[in-house]
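**Backbone shape codes:**
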Amino acid sequence: MTSLPLSIQMLLPLLADGNSHRRAWTLILLQGPGPEMLRTHIQEIHNALGSNSPGIPELNEIIDLSGAAVSDASDTIPNQHYLSQATQRRFVEIVPGRGKVVRYVDLATGDSDVGKTEDLGNEFHFIPIDSKAAEKLWQTVESRINDPIDSALAGRTLTIAQERLLKDYVALHFARNPQLLEVHHKSVKSAVENQLEELARTPFAAAAFYRKTGLHVAQLGGEAARIGARELQGRFTDLYERGALFRLTAQRIFEDVKDRIDPLGVELVTPASPSKEFLVGDVPALTVQEATGRVGVLGGVAVDEAEYLFMALAPQLVVALGPSDGYSSADDTRVDRLNNFQVNGARERVFFRPSAAFAVQIEAWRPASET
């Protein structure tokens, strides 16, 4: 019988599974006992895992990774793009006096302007902690994405590796966007409140209250139990308030979506008419239910409920992940529908080539015009 604390015993199956060692779910769950406690018991963890142990050096690396992901001392990159410049640059044109720019429309006001890709589709301290490590993870995809996009625009048959990279690129943009941050805030606050009442009914809350005050819950009633429950939640609440939990949540969703879309087909959509093209929103990877017209997570369409998941990669190219595979030519109606989805799924802005004639359509599609 192991003498390990229960919070560590519950993690042993994850630590025994080599495929989960560095996945975000594992790093999140390691926050329960915390890096300090894990390191204190590392020899016992190694012994308890037996032949399934990756070894003490590897366990130390996992603990280091977990600690760095929530540490204020970890390296950060202040200005972070949630819409990759690799995609934005596909929509760039030279405008006299402004240089190489992309045009955008503010959906709240309808106002339009142009800007450089380094200044658009970004947010300062979007991931406030350990963002350099997060950016390194995103770069494993973004630094290689031009190859499959160039091949698709040329109409060449994509390799399995190129298709896999396109899927990863869509998954990345699904996980790394302002919409996800909004959902994260709502879901964490709801989960904490729901869990508080459940924890307050357990002996763990009573024990936590006793450790904090030296008093027994039975003598003081329900509010004492809730104070004990908040003590148990304290570490995760702190992680959430500092933005550390979002750092790992974005990675977890990226990994999860990659797994879920792996078996889907890769449809490469190009406009049939040379006068038609695509635009892209600041929530570029969108789930769609054609039958209902609903789009995006905030529209109530989860990945598993979507008919397909799509993203505009260039003015002449959309990738749609779903039942279809290979190249398809979109008539004007389908091009407009996909663009309409991008507008309605966006948070604040949509982007397109400066010379593209989108003004009238966007004004008709944007939610602010539905009054």
Notes: The mean pLDDT is 88. The chain is about 50% helix and 15% strand.
